[in-house]
Amino acid sequence: MDTNRDCGCASAFGRIEALVDGHLRTTETVDVIDHCASCESCAQELDIVSTLTERVKTACFNAPPAGMCDEILNSLKSNP
Questions:
Q1: H, E, C per residue of 11-48
Q2: CATH number given to 9-78
Q3: pLDDT one-digit tens code per residue, 6-58
Q4: Domain boundaries, the chain
């Protein structure tokens, strides 16, 4: 068995974030998606990156609760 052969993971793994962010060309997108469809490890990474990206976007979209910013600033001032 040739353990030095790249099955595509190195290439796909390095482009998963760009895929999720929509920064890949169509051919690259297809390559990464096809690889993830047949590779459990890369598919899990794609799921994790997609989930985290969506949660961060959601958190940044919603305004913080009233008074939260003041509480954080006051906490920082009292805990140098």
A1: HHHCCHHHHHCCCCCHHHHHHHHHHHHHCHHHHHHHHH
A2: 1.10.10
A3: 678 888 988 999 999 999 999 999 999 999 999 999 999 999 999 999 999 88
A4: 9-78
